[in-house]
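fwd from M.: "can u put these together and see what the complex looks like"

so here's what she sent:
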Amino acid sequence: DAGITQSPRYKITETGRQVTLMCHQTWSHSYMFWYRQDLGHGLRLIYYSAAADITDKGEVPDGYVVSRSKTENFPLTLESATRSQTSVYFCASSVSGNNEQFFGPGTRLTVL
Amino acid sequence: DQQVKQNSPSLSVQEGRISILNCDYTNSMFDYFLWYKKYPAEGPTFLISISSIKDKNEDGRFTVFLNKSAKHLSLHIVPSQPGDSAVYFCAALEMETYKYIFGTGTRLKVLA
């Protein structure tokens, strides 16, 4: 199906484990983004990418790693999960940096 | 410090009446503003945008007003419908980095 998808939709893990959240878009959008949504904070940008092999930090990048070897994929890795990383994670894409973003359905991550 | 603020966490409105959602920002360099709507267990979806060179943009039942001197924007929904019940996020574009800064959201409930 066309669009932007995220997997898994739900994930429970333990402190210290490595977790990778996947994001895939079929529009060939140049820009891709990772946000986390927490109560009282709205959506906060973790990392973004302007094109394949180009990534940059957002507002809250600590504890996260991203890569973008292909235009359509933008995985987010938590190298050693902590309880403070319990959140809902949204991936988004856009044609350019100043266009509206299209969001995936989100991944709810719980770190025990 | 929150650069984009939505000071009303929730709002209830009768069906058919006007809903007014407010958003304040602190950075005068913000150049482009968007509103997103979010239903539970889904990603945000783009609703309407406004450039800083305009003071009003209309799309059907949705109108966004921008007051640059007050650093304030508002979203008007007329007439409100029960299907409009959702969380609404405003976002401002930081032009030099192409990063969007989101507000914390306002939960709108339209009562039938």
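replying to her w this: The CA atoms of residues 16 and 79 of chain B lie 5 Å apart.
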